[in-house]
């Protein structure tokens, strides 16, 4: 019921904003706006009632009986809520309505002309989801007779990672609608300058949501899927990754438009690409045509989403090609060696990765259709093709920030890049001397060192200058960051990306994997770790049997403690779930998965040593921090009289730079 | 540190570095278990969607792993082992499509697309260079904090950098305008 009401309100709001914007009818636009706000509580009510049914174990509600049972702990209700199509669609609609309400509210003040058409777009998309829920996939369908018990929840979902990864990811995918709506608004009204701030803000927010969602997914895969990896280039992962890439390109070039007023059309195209890719993502999630480890919650609903994707993509691009002349920018580039051009190269690489990923995802379908042959495009393909592109991207990340706007000179660039270059060479030599000899690993670490040195050089340079103004280093540094938030926030995000790169390089080039069979009391030695299997405790539960192994780990003479790798078998699902025992350190993770029991009380373990993975989980908070810094509204420019600058006091103020750098490290 | 920022030193250092690299770099010989693992990562478990036999805990994947290990121990080559599974389960069992025949397309399309994109980018940049330079929106904060600029350039001077960016743009501008006229 509530969903139908929300649908009606959304359609009204879409029509109202659209018409109001077209006819410039103020009251109509306003009423449409309030209608958009109204949807949030209505959907919240619908959500609450479904949650209530779950808590009451009201198995007469079909969705509840499909995704929970009496044995399910109440705290899992949250996960069960979006375990299937119907519930997750309701969640998506709620998330979109909330994001829309905030976007419309903020946008009305910030960009009054662009927002009404944008909210019409938002409400149209929301109406689509609500219509699907209302007519095709309602979570409120009741069974004629209540079954005595439900079917239970998918065991892979019973993990803390599942509490946040899916909702964050879904919110991110559907959130791409917000920047898209503003881009549409700009296109329809022809106001390219007005949408830039709203577009950038929402682009960044959604970018960060998607980024955190992907990292959370990696974490979930790492701790529960039981293969020791975090990213498998699975089709569903890929379709979540592609809009993220397109948005990454957008949040870079949007700065070019903000500062220089060029690329107005390209920015809109980027957002449209991101939106189309997010629709593709939702299509694949709702019963797409490819096999995936994410194959829960599938149905024939896919075709509805395929249609929506087709319509959404073609309508938006058709509009773009009809209206693009309005966005003509008379301006151009000044030099091929400039920040603007560097951003274009960045776009090329990011879209290159997105294309390769898309190609890998759709190729099996192409092969199926034209050749009738089944083909798998798996991780090795992506690693080989995307790997070099990623390396180039990271290298560009080190160079790009040193390329000035408008026009750069080689001389200046060489100078600013010399310290990072030397540092990266030094790091590479040190790595060589400690036995890291794989060329690709060296390249990856060397490039990472280059980027990190570049970032710290900028921070240090600024902080030292601030210090000269009589501030202490800490406040100087804080004010430096505050002085240009987009820039320094961006550096922080770059740092997070480097952390991820380190983790990926470390674990993929130097990861070790062994399968060992141990009898109780027996020891296995892997590298310098010694693993002793003590025993397994078997606990039968109503819906599963749990096996908790006990292993003692030591290294040399040091005991590292007792660990409990755990697995459970769910007979109803004919499925095992595992919790690896992970001893995580910044240098390497020791990762133990219990895979099975053998006759005579033995057990099979898969033991992995994954260097540097720890840093990937650090990257998440760093990434969010950087985005927040970037987003924090810039204080109004204050006019401060320039202090008199000591121009020539060589005796007093020019200590040699080495001393200067040393003194800056308290 | 100033002495390090000598112009000749960097290329020399890089050369020496490249030289050392070529001398030291080598792939370590892999053990039988590693060889088997490398092959297991190239085979998809036919009954568990999207997982390689290396990842999967499925019974069939375990059996396939055992076969791979046995064949590696018997000294069969990677291609022979992969072919063995292709004969039984079809092309879909390969995690990475073969580089022959139709599936070669998978491998060829990305480099071709990137090459086309590079050409387009170059063409676009050449086109964009001919149009008028963009406006600099002065209401926005400059790249460098203006109040900081004098201090920054001093630090740069001391650290051996040349005076920075801002000063040069005015001079170069007329040059590009000249070009746009021509």
Describe the protein.
The complex is a heterodimer of chains A (666) and B (182). Chain A is built from 21 helices and 11 strands. Chain A has 666 residues and is an alpha+beta fold. Among the domains of chain A are: 1-158; 511-614, Tick-borne Encephalitis virus Glycoprotein, domain 1 (Sandwich), CATH 2.60.98. Chain A is globular and about 80 Å long. Chain B is mainly alpha-helical. Among the domains of chain B are: 32-96, Orthogonal Bundle (Helicase, Ruva Protein, domain 3), CATH 1.10.8; 102-132 and 172-182, no CATH class. Chain B is built from 7 helices and 1 strand. The two termini of chain B are 45 Å apart. In chain B, 24% of the residues are buried. At the A-B interface, helix 10, strand 1, helix 13, helix 14 and helix 15 of A face helix 1, helix 5, strand 1, helix 6 and helix 7 of B.
Largest interface: A-B, 105 and 88 residues
Query: Terminal Cα separation of chain B, in Å?
Result: 45 Å
Number of helices of chain A: 21
Q: Which structural class do the helices and strands of chain B define?
A: mainly alpha
Backbone CA Rg of chain B: 29 Å
Salient structural properties:
heterodimer; A: 666 residues; alpha+beta; Tick-borne Encephalitis virus Glycoprotein, domain 1; 6-stranded antiparallel β-sheet; 4-stranded antiparallel β-sheet; 21 helices; 11 strands; globular; disordered C terminus; B: 182 residues; mainly alpha; Helicase, Ruva Protein, domain 3; 7 helices
């Amino acid at each position: 019921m509530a969903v139908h009401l929300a649908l009606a309100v959304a359609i009204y709001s879409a029509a109202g904003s659209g018409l109001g914007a077209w006819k410039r009818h103020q009251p109509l636009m306003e009423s449409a706006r309030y209608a958009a706000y109204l949807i949030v509580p209505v959907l919240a009510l619908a959500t609450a009632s479904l949650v209530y049914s779950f808590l009451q174990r009201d198995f007469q509600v079909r969705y509840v009986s499909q995704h929970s049972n009496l044995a399910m702990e109440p705290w899992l209700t949250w996960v069960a809520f979006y375990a299937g199509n119907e519930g997750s669609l309701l969640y998506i609609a709620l998330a979109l309505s909330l994001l829309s309400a905030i976007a419309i509210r903020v946008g009305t003040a910030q960009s009054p002309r662009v927002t009404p058409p944008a909210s019409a777009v938002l409400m149209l998309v929301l109406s689509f989801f609500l219509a699907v829920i209302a007519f095709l996939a309602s979570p409120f369908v009741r069974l004629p007779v209540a079954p005595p018990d439900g079917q239970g929840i998918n065991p892979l979902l019973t993990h803390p990672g599942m509490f946040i990864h899916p909702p964050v990811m879904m919110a991110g995918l559907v959130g791409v609608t917000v920047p898209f709506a503003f881009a549409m608004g700009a296109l329809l009204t022809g106001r390219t300058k007005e949408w830039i701030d709203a577009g950038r803000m929402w682009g960044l927010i959604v970018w960060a949501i998607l980024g955190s969602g992907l990292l959370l997914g990696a974490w979930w895969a790492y701790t529960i899927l039981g293969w020791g990896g975090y990213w498998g280039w699975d089709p569903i992962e890929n379709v979540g990754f592609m809009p993220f890439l397109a948005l990454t390109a957008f949040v870079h070039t949007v700065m070019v438009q903000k500062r220089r007023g060029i690329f107005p059309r390209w920015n809109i195209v980027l957002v449209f690409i991101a939106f189309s890719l997010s629709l593709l993502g939702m299509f694949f999630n709702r019963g797409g045509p490819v096999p995936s480890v994410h194959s829960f919650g599938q149905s024939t609903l896919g075709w509805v989403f395929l249609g929506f994707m087709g319509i959404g993509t073609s309508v938006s691009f058709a509009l773009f090609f009809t209206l693009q002349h309005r966005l003509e920018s008379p301006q151009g580039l000044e030099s091929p060696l400039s920040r603007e051009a560097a951003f274009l190269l960045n776009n090329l690489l990011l879209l290159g990765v997105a294309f390769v990923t898309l190609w890998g995802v759709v190729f099996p379908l192409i092969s199926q259709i034209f050749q009738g042959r089944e083909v798998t495009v798996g991780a090795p393909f992506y690693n080989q093709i995307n790997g070099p592109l990623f390396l180039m991207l990271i290298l560009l990340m080190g160079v790009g920030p040193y390329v000035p706007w408008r026009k750069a000179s080689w001389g200046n660039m060489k100078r600013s890049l010399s310290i990072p270059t030397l540092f990266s060479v030094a790091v590479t030599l040190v790595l060589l001397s400690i036995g890291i000899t794989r060329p690709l690993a060296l390249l990856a670490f060397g490039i990472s060192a280059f980027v990190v040195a570049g970032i710290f050089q900028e921070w240090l340079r600024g902080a030292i200058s601030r210090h000269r103004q009589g501030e202490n280093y800490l406040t100087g540094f804080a004010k430096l960051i505050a002085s240009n938030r987009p820039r320094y926030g961006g550096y922080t995000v770059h740092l997070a990306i480097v952390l991820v790169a380190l983790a990926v390089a470390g674990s993929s080039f130097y990861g070790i994997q062994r399968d060992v069979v141990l009898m109780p009391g027996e020891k296995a030695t892997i590298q310098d770790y010694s693993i002793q299997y003590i025993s397994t405790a078997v606990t039968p539960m109503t819906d599963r049997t749990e096996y908790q192994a006990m292993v003692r780990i030591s290294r040399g003479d040091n005991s590292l403690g007792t660990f409990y790798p755990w697995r459970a078998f769910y007979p109803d699902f004919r499925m095992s779930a595992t919790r690896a025992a992970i001893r995580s350190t910044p240098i390497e993770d020791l990762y133990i998965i219990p895979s099975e029991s053998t006759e005579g009380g033995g057990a099979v373990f898969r033991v992995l040593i994954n260097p540097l993975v720890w840093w990937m989980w650090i990257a998440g908070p760093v990434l969010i921090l950087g985005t927040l810094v970037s987003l924090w509204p810039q204080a109004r420019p204050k006019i401060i009289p320039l202090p008199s600058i000591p121009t020539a006091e060589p005796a007093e103020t020019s200590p040699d730079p080495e001393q200067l750098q040393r003194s800056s490290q308290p | 540190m100033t002495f390090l920022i000598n112009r000749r030193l960097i290329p020399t250092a890089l050369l020496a570095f490249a030289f050392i690299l070529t001398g030291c770099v080598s792939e370590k010989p892999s053990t039988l278990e590693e060889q088997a693992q490398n092959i297991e990562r190239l085979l998809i478990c036919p009954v568990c969607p999207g997982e390689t036999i290396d990842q999967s805990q499925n019974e069939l994947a375990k059996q396939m792993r055992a076969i791979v290990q046995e064949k590696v121990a018997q000294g069969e080559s990677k291609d022979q082992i992969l072919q063995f599974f292709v004969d039984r389960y079809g092309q879909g069992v390969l995690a990475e499509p073969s580089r022959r025949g139709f599936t070669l397309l998978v491998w060829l399309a990305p480099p071709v697309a990137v090459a086309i994109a590079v050409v387009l980018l170059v063409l676009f940049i050449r086109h964009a260079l001919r149009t008028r330079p963009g406006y600099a929106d002065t209401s926005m904060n400059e790249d460098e904090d203006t109040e900081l600029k004098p201090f920054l350039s001093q630090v740069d001077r001391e650290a051996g950098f040349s005076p920075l960016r801002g000063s040069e743009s005015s001079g170069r501008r007329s040059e590009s305008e000249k070009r746009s006229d021509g």
